[in-house]
């Protein structure tokens, strides 16, 4: 009995909170609609210009990303090219692989399907990048 009563109380409190939240959102939307209704032609033209400028910037950014190789999955042939790619992009997903392992080839299909601008998807063969852990192509590292 007590459990049923406490559930009823909690459900009523939750219902009231949701109702208050919905009213706040509705009031905000009503005020925005009222502002739009009261705009004159000059203000609407200004909004339109701002939106067109934002669309132009987005298109320009997309073209810049495409020119840098975003939206395609490709192999980087050298260490120098790798570092150049990483420096030019804010977001890079790089698949380090070895031809001698099957697991490296399993990662290819998911990466090949990525066509997102803004993130550069690349692959580098492990022996291409030299460093303390990558000087050999053995399986023990």
From TrEMBL:
InterPro entries: Thioredoxin-like_sf. It comes from the Eukaryota. This is Thioredoxin domain containing 9. The gene is TXNDC9.
């Amino acid at each position: 009995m007590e459990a049923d009563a406490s559930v009823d109380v909690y459900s009523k409190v939750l219902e009231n909170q949701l109702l208050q939240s919905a009213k706040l959102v509705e009031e905000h939307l009503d005020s925005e609609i009222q502002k739009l209704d009261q705009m004159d032609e000059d203000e609407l033209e200004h909004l339109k210009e701002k939106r067109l400028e934002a669309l132009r910037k987005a298109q320009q950014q997309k073209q810049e990303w495409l020119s840098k190789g975003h939206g395609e999955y490709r192999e980087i042939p050298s260490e120098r090219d790798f570092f150049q790619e990483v420096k030019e992009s804010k977001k890079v997903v790089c698949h380090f692989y070895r031809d001698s392992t099957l697991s490296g080839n399993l990662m290819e299909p998911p990466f090949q399907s990525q066509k997102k601008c803004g993130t550069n998807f690349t692959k580098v063969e492990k022996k291409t990048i030299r460093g303390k852990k990558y000087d050999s192509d053995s399986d023990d590292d």
